[in-house]
UniProtKB/TrEMBL annotation:
GO terms for molecular function: phosphatidylcholine lysophospholipase activity; phospholipase A2 activity. It comes from Puccinia triticina (isolate 1-1 / race 1 (BBBD)). This is Lysophospholipase. Gene3D superfamilies: Cytosolic phospholipase A2 catalytic domain (3.40.1090.10). It holds the Pfam family PLA2_B. It is an enzyme of class 3 (hydrolase). Residues 1-148 form the PLA2c domain.
Amino acid sequence: MINTWLRIHKVLPSGSANFPPVPLQPQVWIDQGFNTRPTFFGCNASSTQGNGGYPLVVYLPNSPLSVSATNPSTFKLQYSDKDRDLFLRSVTNSTERPLFGPKKIVDGNWSTCLSCALIDRSRNRMNVTRSPVCEVCFERYCYHDGVLQPTRQ
């Protein structure tokens, strides 16, 4: 996420792509727990046009209980059926039943919150207010874009 932000804002020509604000210091990810729980980046669209100024990114880390099955070596070109099944089970668990907090509990509202994120840009383009349920979800899962970001020089 950090490298994607840097690539878009520091390497690509200005205006060729956009990406929401993310914390640029790895320690912030650890301190805020973004490395262990789902987080929505780009929740506050600056426009009702297109993707709202930048996309809303749903970040699903490979933790806390996911085995590293979803992060194999890029040099490995063939996988056994067992490896494939482990990969798909890990992805399913981290997407459908991510764990939260020090007690590693499943949020019973996660599927609703994920649904809210998936439709948010369409809702924004139609100039429709977020539902109260989605507001609660966004309060819970959004990275609040208040961290100062470096500017293009």
